[in-house]
Amino acid sequence: MTEREQWKSGLGFVLAAAGSAVGLGNLWGFAYRASQGGGLAFLLLYVIVVLVVCLPVLVGEMILGRSTASSPFVAPIKLAGNNWKPLGFLFALASCGILSFYAVIMGWTVDTLFHSLFVGLPSDMREAGDFFGRISSGKSVFIGQIFSLGLTALVVSAGVRRGIERLTRWCMPLLFLLLLFLALWSATLPGAIEGYTSFLFKWDASQLLDKTTIRNAFTQAFFSLSLGIGIMVAYSSYLGKKNKLPKEAFQVASFDTAVGLLAGMITFPIVLSFGLKDVISESTVGALFIALPTGFANLGGIGRLLAALFFGLAFIAAITSSVSLLEVPVSSMMDTLSWNRRKSVWVSTLIVFLLGIPSALSLDFLGNMDAIFNVLLILGGFLIAILLGWVVPSRYDEDLSASDSNLRVRKYLVFMIRWISPTVIACGLIISIYDLFFNWVAS
Ligand code: PFF
Known about the structure:
binds 4-fluoro-L-phenylalanine; mainly alpha
């Protein structure tokens, strides 16, 4: 058996984990969910869910990976026996399912980038509708999907250090610079303040109890942190014992939230300044691909350049996430079937491509995949909390004390993973499932 790879440095791991967290979910999902009416209440619930519920689970996922040094499929079995095999299956299913439609959206991103640079962008809403129709159907959607999956596969097959770590080391600083630049530019637009206040900072206390706002906060938190799906298990299985996981988890969560906010500060001023509010509030998956190119196009040549920067940034964010999604089935196949990395990568990629065909062909199907798999992430998070809070409760503290983590932080996390995270996630899960079915029946 070949020796298990390790990250080159602690920073490499944090950047890779942050790269997984920061993705289309921040750029597209955050704006799209915040615009569904929740406003500041959504933001508040989201931050509470991240800090109170998700952080202990994030550390838990990391412990599961590091202490077993195994792939997401094998780690739960190693820790708690064969009864926990279904959790490994859930991880594999959810990561392949999410990557299947994520790659389709990545394809739209590449296509829009290509149009910004070489073809031109739609100048009004009617043209924008046609534009989105073209990029999201027919041959171009498959070209985009295959390109995105192919690139993801190439990076993952190069390995943890030479592929994933190298990619994120370059991409993450670049991503942050682009984001900052675009947020500053967006702040100079005439509708900037109105954009922030009407979407992000609009306060309506009744939204705190609104089922859809609650589901949005939970799904956004889990989706955005790449939680409940085994990604952090896979990444942490390549870690040494010295890393201080609570600190690293906190860095990842803060970075991810900051990027979500910054992304909202880019998109909402554009939407408001160019009178595109109606498109966004329709809140379909494609809204941003309709509204933003039109907004940028209003600025002429410079707008095309800015659009290229924005969609280039979105693609960079997406690929550092898609490699993490693919690493889950790949590392699981390497572990269970003893295949080499390259064979595991190409077999997983083929499976994901086939699973993604219905999403490439139908926007409704893609929207339903997004809704269903988001609920599965919350279920994954709940099971991780039960596993580490109740089934093998000693492992959490043992692992953290071995790396010398601060005693108070340790006590806080152990309490949270046992009592608070499972209870709150269970409530969030029930509300989310109820809201999902309610919306389906109503539509
Ligand atoms: N966290 C990434 C994003 O927000 O786009 C990608 C992602 C990874 C989404 C894992 C969902 C997931 F389960």
